[in-house]
Write a structure and sequence with these properties.
The chain is mainly α. Helix content is 76%, strand content 0%. The protein is built from seven helices and no strands.
């Protein structure tokens, strides 16, 4: 069985968590949840491309765009969870039968960066979604 590094998993979730690469690293190609990550991420990217080409009035774009923010947030929250997991618990779950290895500052720095980015992405996604919702509600009112 291969050793699964907590530091590498944390940074993979931070950098490419929206695509599920951290799950492929930890659980292999047969992990169903890993295969479910790319679809909403790509749908959100389609929303970004549509908004760049058609502008902010494209309703499909503003329905798809929050999916990208949600999936990036999921990846960042996963990085935080991985980085804050104790070394003993990490070894018991992902490296059973192997001696526990102490991690240094790698996961801690990953958690710090993930917290910063998660706050920015999550608040931006919520603000964008509510702005578009209220614009839509305002356009539906008579008069």
């Amino acid at each position: 069985m291969h050793y699964r590094s907590k530091t590498l998993a944390t940074w993979m979730a931070l950098a490419a968590g929206a695509l599920g690469l951290h799950r492929f690293y930890l659980h292999g190609r047969r992990d169903l949840l890993a295969w479910l990550h790319p679809l909403p991420t790509l749908a959100g990217l389609v929303g970004v491309l549509r908004m760049r080409e058609l502008g902010q009035d494209d309703r499909l774009a503003w329905l798809l765009l929050p999916l990208l923010g949600l999936m990036i947030s999921v990846g960042l929250l996963t990085a935080i969870a991985y980085g804050l997991t104790s070394d003993e618990r990490w070894s018991a779950r992902h490296n059973a039968g192997q001696p526990a290895r102490a991690t240094a500052w790698g996961p801690v720095l990953g958690v710090m960066l993930a917290l910063l980015l998660a706050g920015i992405v999550l608040m931006s996604t919520i603000a964008f979604a509510f702005q578009k919702f209220f614009e839509w509600q305002g356009s539906a009112l008579p008069g």
